[in-house]
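Database export, one record per block. Field names are fixed; values are copied verbatim from the stored entry.
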Amino acid sequence: FLLCVARLATYKNVDAVVNALRGLPDSTLIVVGKGPEYARLVAMAPPNVRFVGEVSEPELRWLYANCAGLVAASYEDYGLTPNEAAAFGKPVAVLRAGGFLDTVVEGTSGVFFDAPRPALIAEALNRLVSRTWDGEAIMAHAARFSENDFIAQLRGIIFDPE
């Protein structure tokens, strides 16, 4: 299954992700999250999209560990969920914008799509599921954003600014 973890608000573009699954009848999407768009999204979803609302931390970890990959279609300043998926060795399909440009390496940790449009998202998801990903390489990439690496980088800037 594919995974989408997001607050169900308009700017997250979950509707575009849900509509992308109409063109992927052999794929299943699990959507984690609640928000003002919940009822509308559930009502419009095709049968291969399942909404689970809020989940516990252990359930969320299970979903990350067992998914084929994560999809995120919103503009984010940073965007935490792709890094969470990468920590489990899972690739992502994300909007080519914002913080995702800093945290996702195309071909190593995921694929990009250029606009939150269902056809572009579906095409990216096809690319994501049609190849074999190196989970160890994805986790190594995610480690660049760990607390330890952050502290080491910050110390380097403070104590050796050149």
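Remark 1: The beta strands are 2-5, 29-32, 49-53, 69-72, 92-95, 110-113.
Remark 2: The first helix runs from residue 14 to 20.
End of record.
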